[in-house]
Amino acid sequence: METLDFIFDFGSPNAYLVHKVLPEFKLVNRIKINYIPCLLGGIFKQTNNRSPMEAFANILGKSDYENLELKRFIEKHKINNYKPNPFFPVNTLILMRGAIVAHREDWLDNYIEAGFHHMWEDPKDMGDQEVYKNAMLSSGFNISDLLTKIQANEVKEQLITNTKRAVEKGVFGVPTFFLGNQMFFGKERLMQIEAILSD
């Protein structure tokens, strides 16, 4: 079975939308999905990139078209729970370090569901530690244990390493996918990946 690497950060609405369609995508295409937590802010800094909100701010019609594409994707895949986060852009450092802890301890799937829920279904300022604490507690996590572990140097270093490796492979934003050595950027590229897998 082939593996599709998914470079993600909870701060990206497009990463959330991709996450919502991956379960069916995985079944239809008989492929394993490997979620790789990276820090989008770190990717932007290392690649001299900016968020679409900043990059397209002065381009007439560009942001409107991006919103149209978002709406089309949501309607096509019948994603009913998406809500824009009023605190966007959110500092996701705490969230992503938590994802490293969850990955190391083999409960990343549950953490991902909670993280995306609190960012894009019941949106909050998840960059605020107190908000993060209450949100993850409500999702059933041992928050005191989690808050201790996200401060560990090895957790911090792993997130830095994941982000650096992604950039070294050519990643400049999220969501990005790797099928073998082939890179694909953006939620719309899932169709290209599907075409390759069906060959």
Task: Indicate the CATH architecture.
Answer: 3-Layer(aba) Sandwich
SS elements, strand count: 4
Looking at the structure, the CATH topology is Glutaredoxin
Count structural domains.
1
Write down the overall geometry. Answer: globular
Q: Mean of residue pLDDT?
A: 95
Please report the distance between the alpha carbons of the first and last residues.
15 Å
Q: Radius of gyration from the CA trace?
A: 16 Å
Report on this model:
The chain has 199 residues and is of the alpha+beta class. The chain has one domain: Glutaredoxin. The protein has helices spanning 13-29, 40-47, 52-55, 62-76, 93-104, 108-120, 129-138, 143-149, 153-168, 190-198; strands at 3-8, 32-37, 176-179, 182-185. β1 (3-8), α1 and β2 form a beta-alpha-beta unit. The radius of gyration is 16 Å and the shape is globular. The chain starts with a strand and ends with a helix. The mean pLDDT is 95.
